[in-house]
Amino acid sequence: MVAEGQELFATLYAQRLFFVVTTTIPKGFTFDSISRSDARQKFEERMRTVRRRGDYSEYDRLQKVYKQTFQ
Q1: Which residues contact 26 (CB under 8 A, 6 or more apart)?
Q2: Over the stretch 50-70, which tens digit does the pLDDT of each residue have?
Q3: b/e for 26-63, b at 16 or more Cβ within 10 A?
Q4: Cα-Cα-Cα-Cα dihedral of 15, 61, 42, 16, to 10°?
Q5: Are strands 18-24 and 28-34 parallel, antiparallel or unpaired?
Q6: Side-chain half-sphere of 19: how many Cα atoms within 13 Å?
Q7: What is the largest CA-CA distance in the chain?
Q8: How many percent of the chain have pLDDT more than 70?
Q9: Is the backbone of residue 59 left (phi > 0), alpha (psi -120 to 50) or beta?
Q10: 21, 39 in Cβ contact below 8 A?
Q11: pTM of this prediction?
Q12: What are the backbone angles phi and psi of residue 14, rounded to the nearest 5°?
């Protein structure tokens, strides 16, 4: 989750194409493609939010995914 009702996904092939899926009621789902830099920024924002909340187990999990995806 990168925001309330939003999830960030990457394609399986080299994780170069990113998209955000937003859940909206009653419309359903919307899919928006975003750049790698925008995906990285959204992910970093989510990590900061989780760290400020003090959820360190979630932060560790996110940090592992971040390293695999963006470094």
Answers
A1: none
A2: 999 999 999 999 999 999 888
A3: eeeeeeeeeeeeebbebbeebbebbeeeeeeebbeebe
A4: 0
A5: antiparallel
A6: 10
A7: 38
A8: 96
A9: alpha
A10: no
A11: 0.79
A12: 60, 10
